[in-house]
Amino acid sequence: MSTETTPDGPTLRDAERKFLLDPYLDWAEGEGVPIHEDFALDMLALETSPWDRFGLNGAICHLKGRDDFLASLLYELPPGGASAPMAHIYEEVIYVLEGHGSTTVETPEGTHSFEWGPKSLFAIPLNARYRHFNGSGREPARLGATNNMIYLINLFRDPAFIWDNPARFPDRMGAADYFAGEGEFYDVLQGRHQWETNFVSDLSGFELKAMPTRGAGGTSLRFILADGSIGCHCSEMPPGTYKKGHRHMNGVVIFAVTGRGYSLLWYEGDEDYHRADWRHGVVYSPPDQMFHQHFNLSQDASRYLALQMGSVRYPMTQGKKDIWAPDGMFAKKADEGGMQIEYEDQDPRIHALWLDEMKAAGVDPKMDAFIPG
Questions:
Q1: What is the CATH number that goes with domain 21-172?
Q2: Selection from 153, 171, 65 nearest residue 108 by Cα
Q3: For the chain, give me the number of helices (H) and strands (E)?
Q4: Do 339 and 240 touch, CB atoms closer than 8 A?
C-alpha cells in the first residue's frame, strides 16, 4: 500500500483513500448534466443538457439546505419530446413548472394516463414503469422532481438495483381514479389533515384547510401521494400577511407556487438575516435548525409546496415523530424548546422591514389583527 509522509505522519495517497466517500455525489458528477448549487435556484432559468439516462434534457440541483435523503432534479422535455420508459426503486414527486403534457403509468390493472399542466403535482408509484410526454410541438415542458434516490444510491451503490429491479409493489399504486385526480380526505387534526391521491391537476386552486396556529389566517393541507414516504404539504398566506418564524430539520424542499414574496433566514443569535426572494419556479431549502419566515408581497394569496423525507403518515424517523405528534415540537414555542416564534416574540425589525416592502409593492398590509399597533 502506497503512503506519503505529512507533518502528521504517513497517510494514504488520495487515489487509494477509502474515506468519506459519497456515491451519490460521484453518480451526479458522472451523469454529464449541469449541476447547480445555491441556497435558492430558479428552475425556469437553469441551464439543462441532454440526459441519456432519462431520455430528456435535465440538470441536478444541490440546494444548500438539502439532507441525506432527498435529491432535487430538473427535467426538460423538448417540444414534442418524450422521456425514456423508466422504472426505479426510489419514490419521486413531480411538480410541473411549465408546459403541458401527459404521463403514462403501467400498473397490474393496466396502463393509466393523465394530462398535466403548470402547477400540477403528481407522484410515480414505487418502481412502476412510466413515461412523460410533452403535449406541445413548439414549447418545452419543465418538471421539478424531488426523490429519495440519495439514500438508496449511497446504501446499495448499484445502478442496476436502482433502475433495473424486478420487484413490484401493487399495493402502492392506489385506486384507479387516483390517477384522474380523485382522492380521499382524512380528517386528522390541524396541520395533519391529509388528501390521498396520485395526481393533483392544479395545486394553485386546491382547497386547503385552516391552520391559524401558523399565523395570519393561513391554510394548509398534507398530500399522501402514491402512498409514499415523501412528506408533501401546501400552505397559503392571504394577501397582506406573513407567517410566523419557525425552524426544523434540513431537507425540506420548498417550491413557490403562486404569488411572490421573500423569506428571511437566520440562526439563533445571528445579527443579520439571509434573504431569499421567490416566485413560481424558485426552489430552496432552509438549512438544519435555521429559523425562517415567509412574507407575501402579492395582491393575492401566495402558496408554496414543501416536500421532505417522512410524512405525517410515515414519519420514517424518530425526529419526525417528535415533530408531528399531537404534543410534539410542532406545537411548542421556540423558547420552550419547540419550533415556532410567536409574533409577539419576533424581532421588531422583521415587521418594520415587511411594512417597507409592502409600501414599495403597493400592497395594503393586513396584519393589525395579529400584531396590534
A1: 2.60.120.10
A2: 171
A3: 5, 27
A4: no
